[in-house]
Design goal:
alpha/beta; D-Maltodextrin-Binding Protein, domain 2; 2 domains; 15 strands; 17% strand; globular
Length: 445
């Protein structure tokens, strides 16, 4: 079964306030690329470690273009503010990884180059149509789709077995029951951490539940963070947090040293993450090779296969580059060249949007994720069999949403308040933020 994300954001462009592109008025000439001796120099930013390998392969076959790939930090409040600040300072990269959920934000600021004039449609058939749509707004095309991010459950099968759990939870009720069994192994052993400030995973769970936080009604945004479905998801996690069944004490949160250490030592026994999480676990919990496995996301209704997406990204050309043609050439090469795609799938852990690369990913077992299986698990096949729900959209100011949610959830946990009680405030903050920018926004609930 081919995994195809079916959310389309084409309608978003009609309500994004294009006037925000004045953001770039202070950017000057922009572009970090320069020419020397007939060679065009480009800078590429991403938060994948292996991008230098891919850039080296490109440089070896493109003597007139040289790409310098620079890995950037991916933590909350780091990468995207840094990209936007660099654009404003006229010192931005020529090419950058931009996750799908940030495309509306960057387009609203006039920060991405339309790649249509540079031959984008020549390779359109090579990509998942749904992923391609995530990069398309009002007839313009803003990035080659790199990967998609359906969520599943990564779990340490050895720890689950030790707790007497013979199969991963198929429903959220089973997940809650398993949380008690795992915590019984020790006061510092948890089924998962609850990262309050790392918000993408939690938004995807609302997506899976059928919530739709952001939609449009004519020229106005409808903000529905406080819907009944959202309250259902919040109440579920409030129950686990109140019983001390998930780790809320790791101060540094997901992706940081303390969390990495907990994965590697088995004190965090599972991680709700997107398909790309396989690369994170392999890189940060190397001592647990052979113990991990992957299962579909637990369901609200037994027998369903629904999921939401956390992340998924594309490669875009940044407004202000002095060499848009060469930058577009590199971006296209990066996600169509077999050697580059192989690195992305095998080393970074992409669930690729390139269809040919995806077929390879769906047939290759990974011995790291062996669980109880001999030879390893075909990780991507688990995600290919899920149903990514339609209907979810992202707002034109995702950073603000992320800050409001992260801050309010963190406050709730610190002060022993419920997550559910914070939803009305988050919704009002989002509405006020958008209206302060001249964007019409109303409450859905």
């Amino acid at each position: 079964m081919q995994h195809t994300p079916r959310r389309t954001i084409a309608s978003i462009g009609s309500v994004v306030v294009v006037a925000l592109s004045l953001f770039l008025a202070a950017c000057g000439g922009g572009g970090s690329g320069s020419s020397s001796g007939g060679v065009v120099n480009l800078t590429f930013w991403s938060f994948n470690q292996q991008i230098t390998e891919q850039a080296d392969k490109f440089n070896a076959t493109h003597p007139n273009i040289h790409v310098t790939a620079i890995k950037q930090p991916s933590g909350f409040g780091q990468y995207y503010p840094k990209v936007l600040a660099a654009i404003k300072a006229g010192d931005a990269p020529d090419v950058a990884l931009i996750e799908y959920q940030y495309v509306p934000t960057f387009v609203s600021k006039g920060a991405l180059v339309d790649l249509t004039p540079y031959g984008a449609n020549d390779v359109k058939s090579q990509f998942d149509p749904g992923a391609w749509a995530l990069e398309s707004i009002n007839g313009a095309f803003y990035g080659y789709p790199q990967d998609t991010g359906p969520e599943g459950l990564f779990y340490n099968a050895a720890i689950f077995k030790k707790a007497g759990i013979t199969s991963p939870p198929k429903t959220w009720d089973e997940y809650a029951a398993d949380a008690k069994k795992i915590h019984a192994l020790g006061k510092n052993v948890y089924i998962s951490a609850f990262s309050a400030t790392n918000t993408g995973w939690y938004q995807a769970l609302n997506w899976q539940a059928g919530a739709n936080w952001f939609s449009t009604n004519g020229n106005s945004w409808v903000i529905d963070v406080n819907s009944a479905k959202s309250q259902q998801v919040a109440a579920f996690w409030d129950n686990l947090i109140s019983q001390g069944l998930v780790d809320t004490n790791s101060a540094d949160g997901d992706f940081q040293p303390g969390w990495n250490n907990a994965l590697d030592h088995g004190t965090i026994a599972s991680w709700i993450s997107a398909v790309w999480g396989q690369g994170v676990i392999k890189g940060n919990a190397a001592d647990t090779k052979g113990q991990w496995a992957v299962a579909p996301l637990p369901q609200w209704t037994a027998g369903n296969k629904d999921t939401g997406a956390w992340g998924g990204s594309g490669i875009s050309v940044i407004t202000g580059t002095k060499h848009p043609k060469e930058a577009a050439e590199f971006a296209q090469w990066y996600l169509t060249n077999p050697d580059s795609l192989k690195i992305g799938v095998n080393e970074i852990g992409w669930y690729p949007s390139n269809l040919q690369a995806r077929q390879t990913a769906l047939t290759t077992p990974d011995p790291f994720f062996a669980g109880s299986q001999s030879g390893g698990q075909i990780v991507d096949q688990v995600f290919a069999n899920e149903n990514l729900l339609s209907g979810w959209a992202f707002p034109p100011d995702l950073d603000a949403v992320t800050n409001f949610q992260g801050n309010d959830f963190n406050t709730a946990i610190t002060n022993h308040l419920s997550l559910a009680s914070q939803l009305p405030a988050i919704q009002n903050q989002i509405i006020n933020d958008l209206t302060s920018q001249g964007i019409s926004a109303t409450a859905g609930s």
